[in-house]
Specification:
single chain, about 375 residues, alpha+beta, 15-stranded mixed sheet
C-alpha cells in the first residue's frame, strides 16, 4: 500500500510539474506577445521616420503610429514632409491622419484588397527663385517611398478635408492660389468592382472649392491595368468670382479683372495612346481694369482683350464663351486654335454655347461606401 501511495504521489507530482512548466511557457509566450504588441508601434514609427528621411532633399516625420491587428490596419498621425533646406515655409505634404487597412472578406475570396482613409491632407507646391526655395514635383524616389509605406496595391481611397496649394514667389505680386475642402473617393483601383464592370472598372470623384468660391468637380473612369492609359474624364468648375484670381491673371495673362464670373466644362478620353477632348470656358459680366500705371504693352493687351470680349459677347446671354477642341498622340498636345476662334464667334453671333457636358450622360456617382465599410 505504501509503494502504491508513493507511486501515486510521484505521478501527481510529475503531472503537476509538467502542467506548471506548460503554464509557465504559456505565460512567457503571452508576455512576449504582449510586449511585442506594445513595442510594435514604436518600432514601426522609427522605421517609417527613417524611411521618410531617406527622400533626397526632404525630411519626414510622423507623430504616432497605432496598430489594429483585428482589422489588419495601421494608423499614422501627424505626417509631415518638408524641404530639408528650410527655405520653403510650408511642408510639401502634411496629413492629420492616414489609415491603411486590409479588407479581410475579399482576402478570403482570393483578392488582396487594401483601403486607405486620409483626413486633412495638404499638398503645397512652391515655385521659388532657386531650387532650394522650390518644391514642385514628386519623381520615382517618392513613388518608391510610397510603396514602402503602403506595400499593397490600393483598391479604395477616401480623402476628406484636403488642400492643394500653389505659390509662385517669382511673380510680383506673389501668386497664391488653392483648392480647399478637397474630397476624393476612388474605387476599383486594382480589383474589379463587379462581375461585369465594363471597360472602366475604376472610378474616381473629386470635389473642392477654388479661389473665388468656385465649385470644382472631377469625375474619371479608367482601366488601371491597361497597358496604355485608358480613361474618360469630366471636369466642371462653376461659380468662380474672377477678381479673386487677379494675382494669377496678372502674372500669367497680363490682365486684371474688375468684375466677372467664370465657368468651365471639359471632357477628355484616351485609348491606345490617342486622346481627344474639349474645354468650354464661360465668362459672365466680364469687365477688365486698364491702369495708366501699367506698362504700355500690358495696357495694349488689356485693351485688345476687352475689345475682343465685347465683340464676341453673346447679345442674349451677355457671356463670352467658346469651345476649344484638342487632341494628341502619346502626350503631344494639339490645340485647335482657329477652330476655337471660329467657335467663339459662332457662339457670340449665331447661337449661345450651352452649359454642361457634351456627348456623355451625367456621370454616375462613385460608390458611396468602401468595399467593406469602415
Amino acid at each position: 500500500m505504501a509503494n502504491s501511495d508513493s507511486r501515486d504521489f510521484h505521478t501527481r507530482s510529475s503531472r503537476w510539474g509538467w502542467s506548471r512548466r506548460a503554464l509557465i511557457c504559456c505565460f512567457v509566450v503571452l508576455a512576449v506577445l504582449v510586449i511585442a504588441r506594445l513595442c510594435a508601434p514604436y518600432v514601426l514609427k522609427r522605421a517609417i521616420n527613417r524611411r521618410l528621411n531617406e527622400i533626397p532633399n526632404y525630411a519626414g516625420h510622423v507623430d504616432s503610429i497605432s496598430l489594429n491587428l483585428w482589422r489588419g490596419a495601421y494608423d499614422m498621425r501627424g505626417l509631415r514632409i518638408t524641404k530639408s533646406s528650410g527655405k520653403v515655409p510650408e511642408p510639401f505634404v502634411a496629413a492629420d491622419r492616414i489609415d491603411f487597412a486590409i479588407y479581410w472578406r475579399d482576402l478570403f475570396r482570393g483578392r488582396f484588397v487594401s483601403q486607405i482613409y486620409v483626413k486633412n491632407i495638404q499638398l503645397n507646391f512652391h515655385r521659388g527663385k532657386s531650387e532650394d526655395e522650390s518644391q514642385l514635383d514628386a519623381d520615382q524616389r517618392w513613388r518608391s517611398v510610397t510603396h514602402d509605406l503602403f506595400p499593397i496595391d490600393i483598391t479604395f481611397l477616401d480623402i476628406k478635408g484636403g488642400v492643394l496649394r500653389f505659390v509662385d514667389s517669382t511673380q510680383t505680386p506673389k501668386v497664391d492660389i488653392e483648392i480647399k475642402d478637397l474630397s476624393i473617393r476612388a474605387v476599383g483601383l486594382r480589383n474589379r468592382t463587379g462581375d461585369d464592370p465594363g471597360p472602366y472598372p475604376a472610378k474616381v470623384e473629386l470635389t473642392g472649392t477654388t479661389v473665388g468660391a468656385g465649385q470644382l468637380r472631377l469625375y474619371a473612369k479608367l482601366e488601371p491595368l491597361a497597358d496604355k492609359p485608358h480613361f474618360e474624364i469630366n471636369l466642371e468648375l462653376t461659380k468662380m468670382v474672377l477678381p479673386s484670381l487677379n494675382d494669377f491673371l496678372h502674372a500669367y495673362a497680363g490682365v486684371t479683372v474688375a468684375q466677372g464670373r467664370f465657368e468651365l466644362y471639359s471632357q477628355m478620353a484616351m485609348n491606345n495612346g490617342h486622346y481627344e477632348g474639349y474645354v468650354k470656358p464661360f465668362f459672365n459680366d466680364l469687365r477688365l481694369v486698364e491702369s495708366a500705371d501699367e506698362p504700355l504693352g500690358e495696357r495694349i493687351k488689356t485693351r485688345l482683350f476687352a475689345l475682343f470680349a465685347e465683340f464676341a459677347k453673346n447679345g442674349k446671354t451677355q457671356q463670352v464663351a467658346t469651345r476649344i477642341p484638342f487632341s494628341g498622340e502619346d502626350g503631344a498636345l494639339d490645340i485647335h486654335t482657329w477652330k476655337s476662334i471660329e467657335n467663339g464667334l459662332h457662339h457670340g453671333f449665331v447661337k449661345a454655347l450651352s452649359h454642361g457636358f457634351e456627348g456623355t450622360a451625367n456621370p454616375d456617382k462613385v460608390a458611396s461606401a468602401a468595399p467593406g465599410g469602415k
